[in-house]
Amino acid sequence: xxxxxxxLTKFQLRSIDGHSRQSPQKKxxxxxLLTCSVAWSVSAQANWCSITGGGVAFGSYNPLxxxxxxxxxxxxxxxxxSFNAVLTLSSGAGTxxxxxxxxxxxxxxxxxxxxxxxxxxxxTQVLGDGTGGSVTLQINGKNTYTQPIWARIFxxxxxxxxxxxxxxxxxxxxx
Length: 175
Known about the structure:
disordered N terminus; Immunoglobulin-like; 11 strands; 6-stranded antiparallel β-sheet; mainly beta
């Protein structure tokens, strides 16, 4: 378990094992916005997938500008057998978060910054669980697959206070 301060400037990966040893429909939960990185491999019977990820550095955000702050990261997914899997992301842990209205990063004083994660460079397809206007990603097993993640903090958030902001987003691979 990483114990470091949370920060808006980094977007890294951590794994959470989701009881994946019961039936052919396995679920593995991954992904957390933190300033630490851990690569994981979770196995269940004959099929398994592993997921690792790099950072997304937002840098400094100016709440007084109407310009969005865009950046990118990626998830690397590898499965050992030929099977189809689905990647989904939660809406995050921030109060009021939604796919359509945006995910919410919070700071220590409960301030929020609205942002979202996307499947495309034009930032029109919100990566989620298939509800609220979001889309999921189909992953074909037995390949190493790199999924870019495009991120955006929306401009004109004039009430945002100075400080570090973070959120927890859970990625689920179902197969």
